[in-house]
Amino acid sequence: MIDKLKELANNSYSPYSHFRVATILIMKDGVEIPGVNVENAAYGSSICSERSAILAAISNGYKKGDFKEINIMVSSGKIGMPCFVC
User: Around Cβ 49, how many Cβ atoms within 10 Å?
Assistant: First the structure.
């Protein structure tokens, strides 16, 4: 999972903070759904990687009870915490 998250973090669009974050949701049916953070010049309009993945899951028909686990990695070499907005 770590290698997948490292590779996925390269898809992050973070030109302002340079703080790349990757998330992989594991659904109960085994499907892995990726997400990355996407920044905007209007910082409040940015989206975290967790929400990116959760929105992708919902867009693909998954519901609340379908989630099994969430894996998150930051690429800065620092310890990161989910923003908990979602």
Answer: 29
Residue 66: helix, strand or coil by DSSP?
helix
- Alpha carbon distance 47, 37 (integer Å): 6
How many secondary structure helices (H) and strands (E) does the chain include?
Answer: 2, 3
Between the alpha carbon of residue 56 and those of residues 16, 19, 27, 80, the distances in Å are 24, 21, 12, 22
Identify the active-site residue in 7, 32, 39, 50.
Answer: 50
The predicted-structure confidence for 20-54, as pLDDT tens digits, reads as follows 999 999 999 999 999 999 999 888 889 999 999 99
To the query of whether residue 50 is one of the catalytic residues in this protein, the response is yes
